[in-house]
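Example record for the data management plan.
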Amino acid sequence: MGFNCGIVGLPNVGKSTLFNALTATVQAQAANYPFCTIEPNIGRVAVPDDRLAVLQKIDAAAKIVPTQLEFVDIAGLVRGASKGEGLGNQFLANIREVDAIIHVVRCFENAEVVHVEGSVDPARDIETIETELMLADLEALEKRISGVAKKAQAGDKESQALLAVMQPAYDLLKDGKPARLARPADAEQNKLFNQLCLLSAKPVLYVCNVEESAAAAGNAFSKQVADWAAREGNAAVVVSAAIEAEVAQLPADDQGAFLETLGLSETGLNRIIRAGYALLELETFFTTGPKETHAWTMTKGTLAPQAAGIIHTDFERGFIRAEVVSYADYVACGGESGAREAGKLRQEGKTYRMRDGDICHFLFNI
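Corresponding structural encoding:
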């Protein structure tokens, strides 16, 4: 289980350049005119995790299998996309399929790169995209809510439950506010809310695409984006897509030194993944042994049987118990046998909530 992020933004903000850099491919055509990306490009990248190499060394594992992150490069939206302007309807449908939105915002001045609105204004650009997503959501709910309301009034229990999550979202959208503000705290209601597939309810990570000289500290434009994200309860990451494109072309051994010359300690990809994990409340657990050291992605609070099911459905169906060692204990004890001798290997049952870094062996019987 990984997670799937759609890269969105206005035309010419650096989406395709960032996508190419993140996936180290040239799948997306980066050109200086709107709509150069017509079909959504998809790229999968390994999620970097230093713990994998440590575990591989301890167990002399033959290979490492990292978890993966999927990026979807979605063509630029323009004002009026919700009404079909540009290639709006197609693009909005692409966004509906992703788990989270990476919203690339142009935070650099460059007279040679045209801006669809004629000037650089991060707040205005964010509002343009957000408005189109909200208008699309409002239209979708308007088509459904009256029918659901009639069934609810007639006593249909399912419709009543659905209306309870639909109405607050609809009311917010009519007031010009994103549907994410209506997300219910109750777990069952949240499941129904997710079934609405609202665009403005998706978690958002803002990526501030700055000039190379501002890659380390950001600039006045990226500060505007950070302030906007903070008000929403979302996150913002400063990245120079131009630098990321250069780094992607370098041998792995040379990347660190190049980044140091620019005052950077890691790539933008690492920062985006870390922020994305936090945004979606994702964590990692491991299985390891002589054959392979494998990282698996789970949502925070996943129960042991469901974690086992991420590896194979049979593991969840026939779950008996999990043998669990924390990453810190596994390393300190030099592996499974040392952890077992030190009493650090725990037997956990069906109600155990997994923790980030857990190293597991699942016992099952079908």
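Summary line stored alongside the record: The chain has 14 helices and twelve strands.
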